[in-house]
């Protein structure tokens, strides 16, 4: 019994310690003073995190938009409400699917890459050599990745939404022949700038902060062995995805739930 | 990879992202840029607005002519006060214009239908529409029916 309590206690303290280390890491990296070379590092990371994720985002967005439009159309056509395809598609994408799916893909595509890269740097002792040379790895390695993630994710979400809406339009208007005017005007009637577009973007920023944070911390905290890096990469994707989904529920509750 | 290529592609990516945001704002949410058309405010008191929402439509003969700006309640009279924003210039509606709360389709959203009167005088900014008819609430109708049947 005492043994059990001890194990639980030790686990809890370990987790708490991890959380503490992660917070310190995040804080020092995010708010370190910028230096001359930083922009160059940031651009390089934005390439890794943003530009290289573009292909998967655009492809998934198009197919998701198309499939939602197809489902909406077949169901709504029964009530003769095909014109509602546009607004249904836009609301679903802007409020939920856009930020969430982008967050999941982002965790899988960019998050795993960040973790693996930092983990490998750690295991090949590049990080400790940097420290020896008086270069702060938090500043040079971690900060640009965090910032790149926070800048890129909302942009990727916006691109995702637009591509998905056009993908849906291709299916609903060009292929199934619902009315183009109804598609757009139905959407424009209902979609609100702040409530739908703004809050969706806010979600994207929140997911970006959490996912890049998890990715960087897992890499930084990884066991410096081949196996450890593999485990850390898996943890990034799993934790990142679960946290995105769980956070989405609470963000939706806070943003759209009518409480108080 | 050359730094130049990286920079160019990052630049293109950021531009594409910003462009996508602009498309979302302008095309999807339908915000019109430039000076807003003239509009003025009217008020209408209803005994029941059941289900009417902010930003609901105000229409006349099926054409949208404005939207619901705000809904508040006057507790002393038990009336709902609806603030309407009407597009166009003051003086387009006769003073005896009536307002009814209607439903779009069977399950659709509630909206306000205006019925212009024949008065020479026009409604001014901030005026009250006096001839109003509230929403039909199913429970009240059934209750009415039951009491009438019972009275027979």
Notes on the structure:
The complex is a heterodimer of chains A (260) and B (152). Chain A contains nine helices and no strands. In chain A, 43% of the residues are buried. The mean pLDDT of chain A is 89. With 260 residues, chain A is mostly helical. The radius of gyration of chain A is 22 Å and the shape is elongated. The longest helix of chain A is centred in the middle third of the chain and has 40 residues, at 84-123. Chain B is an alpha/beta fold. Chain B has helices at 3-28, 138-151, and strands at residues 39-46, 57-60, 63-74, 79-87, 98-103, 110-115, 128-129, 131-133. Chain B has an eight-stranded mixed sheet, with no helix packed on it. The longest helix of chain B has 26 residues, at 3-28. Chain B is elongated, with a radius of gyration of 23 Å. Chain B is built from two helices and eight strands; from the N terminus they run H-E-E-E-E-E-E-E-E-H. At the A-B interface, helix 2, helix 6, helix 7 and helix 8 of A face helix 1 of B.
Summarize the structure.
Chain A has 260 residues and is an all-alpha fold. Chain A has 9 helices and no strands.
Topology (elements, then pairings):
The complex is a heterodimer of chains A (260) and B (152).
Chain A lengths: L1 H29 L7 H12 L4 H23 L7 H40 L2 H7 L4 H39 L4 H11 L2 H28 L5 H31 L4
Helix pairs in contact in A: 1-6, 2-6, 3-4, 3-6, 4-6, 4-7, 4-8, 4-9, 6-8, 8-9
Chain B lengths: L2 H26 L10 E8 L10 E4 L2 E12 L4 E9 L10 E6 L6 E6 L12 E2 L1 E3 L4 H14 L1
Determine the fraction of residues in helical runs of chain B and give it as a percent range. 25-40%
Largest sheet of chain B: 8 strands, mixed
Which structural class fits the helix and strand makeup of chain B? alpha/beta
CA-based gyration radius of chain A: 22 Å
Q: What is the largest interface, and how many residues per chain? A: A-B, 32 and 23 residues
Number of helices of chain A: 9
Order of helices and strands of chain B: HEEEEEEEEH
In total, the number of strands of chain B is 8
Structural class of chain A: mainly alpha
Name the beta content range of chain A: under 5%
Q: How many H/I helices of chain B?
A: 2
Query: What is the overall pLDDT average of chain B?
Result: 82
Oligomer: heterodimer
Average predicted local confidence, pLDDT of chain A: 89
Number of strands of chain A: 0
Poorly predicted regions of chain A are none
Cα distance spanning the termini of chain A: 44 Å
User: Low-confidence spans of chain B: pLDDT under 50, at least 5 residues?
Assistant: none
Choose one word for the global shape of chain B.
elongated
Major sheet of chain A, described briefly?
none
